[in-house]
Amino acid sequence: MKLNEIRYKIDRIDRELLVLLQERMGLALRSKKFKAAISDPHREEDLLARAERLNLDLVERSFTRQLLETIIQESKRLQEEDRKLVAFQGEHGAYGEVASRELVPNGAYIPCLEFVDVFRGVEEGDLDLGVVPVENSLEGAVTQVNDLLTTTDLKVVGEIKVPVKHCLLATRGTDYREIRVVYSHPQALAQCRGFLMRNKLEPHPFYDTAGAAKMLARESPKASAAIASRLCAELYDLDVIKEGIEDGSSNSTRFLLLSREAYPGPGDKTSIIFAVPHEAGKLYDVLRLFAEADINLTRIASMPLRSDPGNYSFFLDFEGSQQDDHVAAVLAKMEALAIRLKLLGSYPADSSSA
Amino acid sequence: MKNLKLASRDTIEQTVIHVGDVAIGRDFVVMAGPCSVESEKQTLETAHAVKAAGADILRGGAFKPRTSPYSFQGLGLQGLKILDKARKETGLPIVTEVLDPRDVSWVAEFADILQIGTRNMQNFSLLKEVGTTRRPVLLKRGMFSTLEEWLNCAEYILSEGNPNVILCERGIRTFENYTRNTLDLSAVPAIKELTHLPIVIDPTHSTGRLSLIPPMSLASVAAGADGLLIEVHHDPSTALCDADQALTPDRFQLLMRQLRPLYAFMDTMNT
After folding, report:
1. Cβ contact A245–B106 (<8 Å)
2. B105 to chain A, minimum CA–CA distance in Å?
3. Which residues touch B32 (CB under 8 Å, ≥6 apart)?
């Protein structure tokens, strides 16, 4: 092995150490919800003793102890900080984390495998807030999330539109001319189809955009790149070969911020879900109430009811707060018309034009 | 010139290529900027200066064809990213050279116009490759080439399906050695007789002498050229290539103040 090859491997290991440390800190923060006190001397001693039993000739016992003590110290300091635990779906660097960082600055961003884990985590109090995508400007509704919204007791307390700017990422030093294969979520690959075709790159589907970036950083497969957010480049020490490689120019995803408690202020935007009897003119009757009250609807979407095939839930977002008199009046009239009315909450609208 | 099925004047009256806010072939277009992208600071400063002086398009090389293999070869991808940033900051479209067929699709992702340099005019595999992109191509005249050879090279690009070719006269080799090359200004009206493609003049490489650049720029306007390609460097004394032939931003600004009224005057003469 030559010096540059050795250093390349060392860099990769350092990167991995830091990524793992980040994951460990996230787990430590989650553990706080289950403990009476942050400090647990028995557990710490257990941990140190177990590490000391390892017989690693190059990693001496005294060093192991010192290293772990430093990590435990830092993890206790983080737990003292009382950061909000914000759950998102995907790996670190997913667009959900990009949205979370915007919605809740200074939070601890906790990756979850599935959308349902975000909902359950917040519902059960293991996590403080959740951030989920509801619709994408190109692909439409995120049906899994909308389905979960119909059954959850969580409240919507905020929203944000995140511009989806896909980046072509590669490990540092990769010659772009050697790239042949690009890993990413099928949706991201589809959104960059033109770019991939122009540069004769072969799309390889992966379970997650950020997951593809993470795999790239950990395994450094030859002649490969990933499509993911710019945040991923920062988290996994990757080179941004090109930013904004998506075909359409205005691609954005709208995320909702979920909490167990309703938004404390009045807010200026409201989300509801309702279902009406399967009779002529029933949906019109509901929509007419909004028209007559001069309330601007910002989103209307329908989804089949899982519990009752053939019938539909309607998702409605509109300007105004539940606490406004004219909105309250419309909602009261809706109660009389609808089979089911679910108020997701009023919250501050994202005023950015993204 | 019977082989010019697509480049010949018989097929179209005048090709007009829209890049950013300008229409090359209709408006008088000035492309200006450094010979090569040396750093972010140098490129952004020069970009803002040429924008302020009234240039329409930013030029700058990320891949440099140098006479010596030991001369600065350009920043490559890093240079393209810097040009991309300059475009975002100034709004100026980018023209930059591509040297290698393997780079064409990648350079096309960053540049608004692909430049084929004089040394590559007859690099047919490169011409075919740029012919498959959707980017306009600025095709420089080979320094030893006849008009017919030049137009046949344009034909290569057109025949691959890319209709947007801009010709650029940059001087030819003659026995004269006071100037770096000899600017063939007669190429402008000759090209106008032969083809519908727009033609711009590079007064920098054709003369190689600072003092000759402004007068030959004005002469290009009078001859009916569709635009100019001029090297400008925010601090020529520090330039990594062609330091002694880049205009300072001040000198460029003065030239721009002379060019526009002359163009307007020539326009009234012709209508």
Report:
1. no
2. 6
3. B50, B53, B55, B57, B58, B59, B228, B229, B230, B231, B232, B252
Q: Tell whether B30 is covered by a domain.
A: yes
Name every chain B residue with its beta carbon within 8 A of the beta carbon of A199.
105-106, 109
Whole-prediction pTM: 0.81
Answer whether A198 sits within 8 Å of B133, measured CB to CB.
yes
The overall average pLDDT reported for chain A is 91
Distance, CA of A14 to CA of A16 (rounded, Å): 5
Bridge partners for A155 per DSSP: A259
Question: If you search the block for the tokens 């995803």, which residue do you land on?
Answer: A253
| B123 belongs to a structural domain | yes
Q: Classify A167-243 by CATH class.
A: alpha beta
Please check whether residue A302 is in contact with residue A251, taking contact to mean a CB–CB distance below 8 angstroms: no
The domain of B168 spans 17-270
* Residues 6 or more apart in contact with residue A278 via CB below 8 angstroms: A310, A311
Both structure tokens of B257? 């103040």
CA A138 to CA A191: how far, in whole Å?
A: 9
Contact of A30 with A128, CB cutoff 8 Å: no
For A30, how many CA atoms within 13 A lie in the half-sphere containing its CB?
18
Given a cut of 50, is residue B133 above it in pLDDT?
A: yes
pLDDT of the residue at A354:
43
B265: Cβ contacts below 8 Å, ≥ 6 apart: none
Please give the class, per CATH, of domain A264-347.
Answer: alpha beta
> Does a structural domain hold residue B4?
no
A255 in active site: yes
| Chain-centre distance for alpha carbon B24 | 12
B120 in reach of chain A (CB within 8 A)? no
Predicted local confidence at residue B10, as pLDDT: 82
CATH topology assigned to domain A85-164: D-Maltodextrin-Binding Protein; domain 2 (3.40.190)
* A176:B110 CB<8 A: no
DSSP bridge partners of A226: A169, A183
DSSP state of B172: B
User: Does residue B170 sit within a domain?
Assistant: yes
Per-residue pLDDT tens for A165-198? 999 999 988 899 999 999 999 989 999 999 999 9
Prediction ipTM score: 0.80
Q: How confident is the model at residue B186 (pLDDT cuts 50, 70, 90)?
A: very high
Residue A253 annotated to the active site? yes
- How far, in Å, CA of A54 to CA of B89, rounded? 56
Indicate the number of domains in chain B.
Answer: 1
Q: What is the pLDDT of residues A40-79, one digit of tens each?
A: 889 998 988 888 888 788 888 889 889 999 999 999 999 9
